[in-house]
Structure formats: C-alpha cells, structure tokens
Amino acid sequence: GVERVSEGSDDDDGGNPTVNFRGEKRKNDTHQSVVDPEARLYRKSYGVAAKLCHGAHVLMENRHGLVVDVSVSEANGRSERREALRLVRRARRRHGLKIKTLGEDKGYLAGPFLHEMEAKEDVVPLVAMPDVPIKSKGVEAEARRRARRRQRTKRYAVAQRIRMRVEEINGWTKEIGGMRRSRHVGRWKIDQMVLVVHTAYNLLRLGRLEALARAA
Asked: Could you give the maximum distance between any two Cα atoms of the chain, in Å?
C-alpha cells in the first residue's frame, strides 16, 4: 500500500509523524498527500519540480473567448486528451454545439487521440506538431501526418493564435480567482470551485463584450 506521508521535515510529534524525503525521488506509488489523497505528483513541463495537484481543463469557444465547459481530473499524462474528448462530447449533448475544429498545443499530438477526434467526433484537430519524422504506420500515424500537413494552412495559424486566449483564462482564474492554490480538499469540491470561478470569468467577459458592442 501507499504510505501516508506529508512534505514536512522531521519532528518530535510521535502521534502525527512526518517523514523527511529530501534527496529522494518522489513518486505517486510511494508519496501521497496527507491532506488530499486524491492529489497526484505531476510535472507540468521538463525542468520544473513535480507538485501534488489536480488537473483542470477548459473548453473555450473561439469567437468571443468564453468558457464553454470545464472539468477536473487526476493529474497525469493522459488526462488532457481524455478530458478534451469528454468536454467536446458534453458540449454537444448539453448545448447542441456544432464543433468543427479544435485548436490544441503539443500535449495533444498522440495518434490515438487525433484519430478518435477525427473518426468518432468528426472534429478536425489543429494541433502543434514537432518537426520529427513519423515512421510508424496505421490510422493513428496517418492522423498525425494529417495534423502536420494542416500546419501549413491558414485555419491552423488562426486557431493557434486564438488558442492563446485560453492562457488569459488560466491566468485570471489562478491569480484573481484563487485557483493557483486550492482552498479545498477532494476532487469533487475542487470541481465546484473550478465551475464557480470560470462562471465568474464568463460574467466579466460578457460585460466587457457588451461594452465593446455598445461602443461600436
């Protein structure tokens, strides 16, 4: 089983001991948050420390930069792609949206994801692809090759430029909405916080859009 440990230093509290893991590599099968067992060690990018966290995901519409849907998941290397499919499907079911394209960064370049988005969801993924050879064969490799060819198109350039608006959402929700460090324990409560904070962002965004429309 997983030993329940904290990130504290050695102390003399025998009833509530902490374990000092300085100098040791932390992994999810050996380290678990005492406060929030659902949190997972996750490294956002190379060269940065892994932190105990949850994954938060946003689906944004391109025309006005509004949040269409959000979700919270376990923080791991697969959740972004899984939640992207889930959010697209839920947006169609709940709101009847006709999603034709989806702008994404290099975290979504996996062949199985690209193939499923095209074949099952009829959505064109406009994803940033690295300039490396694609030597494998099959439908998943072909999906990656199509994604690479789309990088030369105008709609790809437009989608990638507009996609950066989601960073405005992420920045606001972290710095103003207080999501940089969760005040809640457990994924269900964090999911409610994410929903409320992004709703607040949409309300402010709608106010700005209305002011711009009146001034036009």
From this structure: 68
